[in-house]
Design brief:
alpha+beta, FAD/NAD(P)-binding domain, D-Amino Acid Oxidase, Chain A, domain 2, seven-stranded mixed β-sheet, globular, binds flavin-adenine dinucleotide
Length: 429
């Protein structure tokens, strides 16, 4: 059997569904091909940064996301006796907060919106096997049925093991880390209503509030120590959390066995090209980041926004040419690479436990608390709303070799570092 569409998207994760919804709204025929038939129970990204919220507002799904998510404005960093806050409210404008939402819930919101458009097709239980003669081969019904999809454009949104990236002959550069994470969601105390990162010597616990009084946690363990950790039993797991945050007594202890606790292996990689002819890749297919800065899913959403807007321009103007896809790579690749570096640096800061590194980390956090420029830069870069590179001067301030600049910037000055419409969609001008 052969099916036709204008844009075929392999993978119905957050990236593929955001693109699918965007194209459906632009009256472009789009088909999303997803191998899973049921929602997945694997934990994935749940933190939506400000830029993603802005994108979702344009797609008319932000209200639904807010209703089903948990909004918060601050992340507290606890390092020994010191506490420092990263506050989203330092960002001018409407998107001065983040939202935590269960990954599968967000997928359901995007999918149900997209299904309202007759030009949106969703094939679940459909495995994208590869490409042959410019067509996508899809296997269904436990791989017993084979069909071919013919499209003007193919987008690989199928995550780390992308078949489209392979077809494009795009190579990846990979970084591995000396640590892994345990991750699990469990009930939380009501008072835990903002993000919290607790670090003590070599230990690290991240806590992010979800709706329905739950919290998603990540706990750092040395690479290769999972089996040993698991063998010590669930009480040992509780103990580790309680030593860092005693307020979790009566909450984390409700986890009775290991069945919900998942091992998360951080890696970072980026592909050397995001487009080739009629093929493009987005999200984890094009880049993965260390989860420390909570950016993976947000980068997929931002890719989908730029690529979707580009297709929209092509189809609405009739200038439908694979050559124009270069614009997508031009905008997104440098931004993704900056984000990989930012997440990598944050990861390094928590990867080593000697007194020297702990001292630097403590000093850095203290200086960040005092220095309004550093605070704004950090928050802006994480938000995705813009980018302002750190300078040598910032590094000296961070190291305590120069005094903190406690004079804040005006909203107007801050907005100068936001991406403009022209930065996001340069082909329009
Ligand atoms: C275990 C884990 C935990 C994570 N935790 C965090 C976190 O805490 N914070 C954060 O920001 N990020 C986290 N991430 C990363 C984040 O979830 C991803 O960056 C984000 O989901 C990327 O979205 P995506 O749509 O590009 O890819 P994915 O979410 O991987 O979606 C790809 C989709 O394609 C489907 N698929 C794959 N191959 C095929 C095929 N051949 N044919 C058809 N369908 C296919 C898959 O079933 C999946 O639905 C985590 C990732 C993992 C794996």
């Amino acid at each position: 059997m052969s099916l036709n569409t204008e844009v075929a998207v392999v993978g119905g994760g957050i990236g593929g569904l955001t693109l699918g919804l965007k194209l459906a709204r632009s009256k472009i025929d789009v088909m999303v091909i997803e191998k899973l038939e049921e929602p997945s129970s694997i934990y994935k990204g749940e933190l939506l940064q400000p830029k993603s919220l802005q994108i979702f507002e344009k797609l008319d799904v932000l209200k639904d996301i807010q209703c089903n998510g948990f909004s918060f404005s601050r992340i507290a960093f606890e390092e020994g006796k010191n506490e420092f806050f990263m506050d989203y409210r330092i960002l001018p404008g409407d998107y001065d907060y983040a939202v935590m939402i269960e990954h599968e819930k967000l997928k359901r919101i995007l999918l149900s919106q997209a299904l309202q458009y007759p030009n949106f097709q969703y094939l679940s239980g459909a495995f994208g096997k590869g490409y042959c003669d410019g067509r996508l081969i899809v296997e269904r019904k436990n791989r017993k049925e084979r069909l071919f999809v013919k499209a003007d454009f193919y987008v690989g949104a199928e995550g780390r093991n992308s078949i489209t990236r392979k077809e494009m002959n795009s190579k990846i550069k990979k970084i591995d880390y000396n640590h892994h994470f345990l991750t699990v969601t469990f009930p939380r105390p009501q008072s835990l209503d903002e993000g919290k990162i607790i670090s003590k010597d070599e230990r690290f616990l991240g806590l992010f509030p979800l709706p329905k009084a739950k919290v998603r946690s990540v706990y750092l363990i040395p690479k290769g120590s999972y089996k040993e950790f698991h063998a010590k039993g669930i009480d040992h797991f509780h103990q580790n959390y309680l030593e860092l945050f005693p307020e979790l007594k009566g909450y984390v202890t409700r986890l009775k066995d290991w069945s919900d606790i998942q091992l998360m292996i951080p890696t970072a990689f980026y592909a050397d090209k995001y487009v080739n002819g009629r093929y493009a890749i987005l999200g984890d297919a094009a880049h993965t980041v260390h989860p420390m800065a909570g950016e993976g899913m947000n980068m997929a959403i931002q890719d989908a926004d730029i690529l979707g807007e580009l297709y929209e321009s092509m189809y609405s103007t009739g200038r439908i040419s694979p050559g124009r896809l270069k614009w997508y790579e031009k905008v997104r690749k440098p931004r993704a690479e900056k984000m990989i570096s930012l997440s990598h640096l944050s990861a390094l800061v928590y990867s080593y436990s000697n007194r020297f590194i702990t001292g630097i980390r403590r000093k850095g956090l203290k200086q960040m608390e005092r220095d309004k420029t550093l605070q704004f830069k950090q928050m802006l870069n994480v938000s995705g709303l813009g980018y302002w590179s750190e300078s040598a001067l910032d590094r000296f301030v961070q190291a305590g070799m120069l005094p903190a600049r406690n004079r804040g910037l005006s909203s107007k000055a801050k907005r100068n570092y936001f991406y403009t419409e022209k930065d996001d969609y340069p082909w329009k001008s």
